[in-house]
Design brief:
180 residues, mainly alpha, Multidrug-efflux Transporter Regulator, Chain: A, Domain 2, 3-stranded antiparallel sheet, two-stranded antiparallel ribbon, 8 helices, 61% helix, 6% strand
């Protein structure tokens, strides 16, 4: 390693906070291979390998899988693109978790029956288009066909609620709200 700083696997473990077993695992998978071998055959790592291991640890902490991490550290995939894709996936997961939390909070507060729980869960999972269509079908049944009276169609359109995509538990008497 030509006079550069050289780390044993134990030194690298202490420096990074990872276990020796974890570093061996990454080395055996080719994600952070040793830079050299010492005279006794032990793995040695240089500063660049230590930096690569820091990146691997950070990406693992952020939830990236090993195949994606390997592509990033091998420069087969760009970090900004990978980060953007994973941030988008997390945003989708967060939306699902918020929906679940809202449904569970309402169910807990209202001491809902299994049937009510099923209905609320199915309603909460509807897409924005499905919710809009459901409201329109209700209004058609309650108020009649909007095409029958064009003057009434504008009034009806202005009175039709627009449900946002993210539900939240509410303290209202109905126990459910769709915030803007």
């Amino acid at each position: 390693m030509n006079g550069e700083t050289s780390y044993s696997i134990g030194d690298l473990a202490r420096r990074t906070g990872l276990t020796v077993k974890t570093i061996r695992f990454y080395a055996d998978r080719g994600i952070v291979p040793p830079t050299d071998r010492g005279p006794t055959g032990h793995r040695r790592y240089d500063a660049a390998a230590a930096a690569r291991l820091d990146l691997v640890r950070t990406l693992r902490d952020l939830g990236l899988d090993l195949a994606t991490i390997r592509a990033v550290v091998d420069r087969e995939a760009g970090l900004p693109e990978v980060a953007a894709a994973h941030a988008e996936a997390l945003a989708a997961q967060i939306r699902v978790l918020r929906l679940r939390r809202a449904v569970l909070a309402v169910l807990a507060r209202r001491a809902a029956t299994p049937e009510q729980a099923d209905l609320l869960h199915r309603l909460a999972r509807l897409s924005a288009e499905e919710r809009r269509r459901l409201v329109e079908e209700f209004l058609d049944a309650a108020l009649g066909d909007p095409a029958a009276d064009p003057a009434f169609a504008g009034v009806r359109r202005s009175l039709t609620p627009s449900c946002p995509t993210t539900p939240s538990p509410s303290r209202s008497r109905r126990g459910w709200s769709w915030p803007s």
